Every structure is written in structure tokens, then in C-alpha cells.
Amino acid sequence: MADGQAPEPRPLRVLQVGGLAGPGAAAGGVWAVARMQSAALAAAGAAVELVGGWLGAPPPVKAGTSPHGVRYFRVHRPFPGAKLRGLVSLALPRYAAAHGRTADVVHVHLCRDFITTAATLLLRRTGVPVVAQTHGMLVPSVAAPVRVFDRIITRHMVRIPALWLTLTAQEEQDLQQLGVRPSRMRRVVNAVPDPVLRWSDPEQQVFLFAARLAARKQPAVFVQAAIEALDAGLDARFILAGPDQGEAEKVRALIAGSGHAERFELTGELGPKDVQAAMGQCTAFVLPSLNEPYPMAVIEAAALGVPLIVSTECGLAPDLEQAGAAVLSEPTAAALAEAMRKLGADAQARNGLSARALNLHRAIWSADILAQDLLSRYRLASSSKQGPGARRRKEGTR
């Protein structure tokens, strides 16, 4: 360093704590968001490590496969039938607490599961600023076991994070009911990096449903809408891509009795690259889900410039409507069938939706913009919470 020259500022040290990371689609959208954020933060110059749980033997993490550090910890079901919230790992929360002491901030993707709840509770005594993001998963409940959990644990846990990152106004209302003060909330967005692929309108029309085959996503309603559209003369194919989470049998039965079985394809779960390829070659991406707070698949499709048909119950609907970047439909078969017929008959409308979806992604769902926003939020959390551990770290750097 030359005489009189200011030293280079060191990178912000960030530990991100996710829940279940795999295998396969068991991880869900929360882990996808955590990975995206970690990669974007690393690209922006932060020193990032991401930790998550793995059912079974964790896979080796190959050097150079990620711009940030990733570490997996084995988790197990404490009893047969235990679902995501009940998966247990003692090593992951302990690691988060121990290594959080050397971080400038710990970002916990907190979803009322054992892993992230235990990590947050252990981080309480470290003094490190904790930023929590619940992805709409931490909501008040009338279920007796959840109410007991909230009375014993959640009411103490919500005092720990210095900052809460929220996606929607509804999420903020839910957190307030659980005891989080509005002054500790800051709104963020989800994002995806700019993809290499771009959408192109296929010659043979294809409508794509790419999501979990779960009741909330309404794959059966997608099939019913497709059957109505086919009966009305729409010449198109329909693809359902995603892992079964309880709806596959109903979907198959509807297709078998439709008289149009040759028009449908069930691919099962696809990898990220295959999902992108399917999106890039469809006439429109259709998501008829109910009460969907912030679907990453819609953002991924917008990044490619895919024409969108999205439920009015999607949390992204206001942004999409304002930008004219999607056809908004009631989540019913009749409404979706009409939307697909109209869009299928109007190439100009498809091209317009594509261009506006790309512009919307660049304006608010860009990974670069999100990284800078997160860094500013982390600095805010660091300045607003100075516990004993934080003071010890500062004294140690003098």
C-alpha cells in the first residue's frame, strides 16, 4: 500500500442460514432464494457462506462451482412422517452460532422449522446482528400445536433479529401479530440473475405449468382449463413440470378422461436448466395458484421474457398489472381457459407481454439491484444492534 493511501475496505462478511437444501425439489423456493442471494452478494464483493440441511448423506461441494461458500449438514426425521418443519440437525445451528461470531451479519431464512429456529435462538448470545427473512412462512395460526409453539418460542425468538426483511404488506401484518415492530421491517424483493436464454415464440403453441403438483398451485385447474380450451378449438400442447406433492393422481385422472390425452405431457421434476429451456420455448407460462405470496417461477419466467398468465391471488400481481407484463386471471378453469385462448390467438399481445416482462425484471427483480439493497440493509442492521458480541468484535479489530 502506498504511503498516505487509504487501506482497501474489507469485504462485508455474511453468513446465510437456510433450512432444507435438498435433495431435489424437497428444498423448495426458500433455498433457491438463499442461493440466489448468496451468489448475488458474492458477485457484489461480499464474503458469503451459505449453510443448509440435507436429508441423507450431503453431496460434496466442488470447488469453483459457486461464487460463494456452501456447506451442507445432514438432517434427519426424528419420527416417521415428520415434515419439513420437524427435520432435525444439531450440527447446523451450532455451526451457525459459532461461525456467526466472526460474521458482520447473519441472515436467517426463518420459517418456523427446527433448523432455522434453533440457529436463531443460539445466535442470541453472540451479539452478531441477525437479519430474518420469513418468505411469508411465519404467519399466525389457529392450530393448537402452532399456537403453543408461538407462545413458548416464537414470542421470544422475534425479539432477536435486528431487522426483518419482508416481501409483501400481508407478511408485515402477519409479523406484527406475532410481535414484530413495524420499525424493524424493511421491504425487499426476490430476484434472479439475467439468464443467457431468451424467450422465442414457438410455432406449435405450448402452455407450461412449471411448479410443484401441490393443491395450492392448482395443477388440476390448469388441466381443466386446458381441456376447456381444447374443446373450444385451441390447437396447443400442455406441459406440467414439477414434483408430485399430492395432486399427480388427480391430474392423471383428468387427462385420461379428457379425450385429449395426447395433448398433455407430465415431465416430473426438472432441473433449473431444463426449466429455463421449457420456459424459453412455450407460448405462455401459466400459474393458477391460490394465495401465492411471491412465486420465484414467475420472476424466472419474466427474466426470460416469457408471456405470463398469472392468478389474481399472486402476490406479484400488482407489479405485473402496473407494468402490463402479464395476463391476470381469476384462478378458475373457465377464466384460465379464456385467457389461454385469447393469448394463443394474439401473437402481438404475446410479444408485448414479453418485452414488458423483461423490462420489469430489469427494473425491480434484478439480482444486481437486490445485492446492493441487501448490503444496505445489512449495514443498517449492524448499526442498529450493538450487543456484547458486536462490541467484542469491534474491540478486537482496533
Automatic annotation (TrEMBL):
Stated name of the protein: Glycosyltransferase
Annotated ranges, domain Glycosyl transferase family: 202-357
Record organism: Arthrobacter pullicola
Glycosyltransferase subfamily 4-like N-terminal domain boundaries: 28-190
Domain of life, per lineage: Bacteria
Matches recorded under InterPro entries: Glyco_trans_1, Glyco_trans_4-like_N
UniProt keyword list: Glycosyltransferase, Transferase
